[in-house]
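step: validate -> pass
step: tokenize input -> pass
step: predict -> running
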Amino acid sequence: MLTGLGWGAITFLLMAGVLLDLLLGEVRRWHPLVGIGNLAYALERRLNRDALRFWRGILACLLAVVPITAGTAVLIWWLSPHSYLLWLCHAVLLYFSLGLRSLGEHNLPIAAALAQQDLSQARLLTARIVSRDTSNASEQDMTRASIESLLENGNDAVYGTLFWFMLAGGPGAVMYRIANTLDAMWGYRTERLRQFGCCAARMDDALNYLPARLTALSYTLLAPTLAAKRRAWRCWRQQAPAWDSPNAGPVMASGAGALGIRLGGAAIYHGVLEQRPQLGEGASASGSDIYRAWRLVSHTTLFWLALAAIIATLQLGGLHA
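step: predict -> pass
step: emit ->
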């Protein structure tokens, strides 16, 4: 738990960070995560050479993660005598690390473009959020891509960030999001990145192991009916092991099961057609399901905040007993 603070303070800071994200959205200029992305790009260009790619990847991860995380930890320590500034710093670091509003801003316009049958605009918007080739994507391809991105990034950009904030405050959220960024940029099985990005991918897998399963459980619990809850649980347990990613599998399988739709299937990555396992059960996803996926992600965020508030209330009651 966040060192030195009770659940009441943690809950307040969680709500403050989420509220700031919903009100302000992403910083348009000088966003810290954009800076981290630029740093990751520069490190990869400089260090990813023919010899010792694996070890160079480890060095690059250390150079990206350690100085920034340590710097935020030192800032928190320096502000520790000043309660209000300390709380403000934690809340701002959480705000910079969250991406709930941006998930909606990037995915809901895809649903709107598909509703208007504007496939060219939908392809352009979808290409901004996924690494797969969308140049000839069908409506169903883009719908699957958007929903998969929403469900998976619900964990990466929201719940995983909240989880690590609860454990280690602002520095924990920053560390986690740096790992996400490195994995998103380096964690591909291409000839150039297979060895260099291995450390980044494994680091992200480790940091996401518990948050991903808590996310999958949350999607299951928030499925609209008992039958849907059972379906989400079944999809999680039966389908997730077949997915390449040990964390994306549970998250997307349970989310697809909760929504009663099918995800996965064929997708083109870096010019190569990949046949991915099916996730979920029911009808093929349609454009309107993007709105349903967004509601599931939003409701799960409220669910996590409500749980934190309940724990804080129980803790307060125990102190007064």
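step: describe -> The chain has one domain: 7-320.
step: cleanup -> pass
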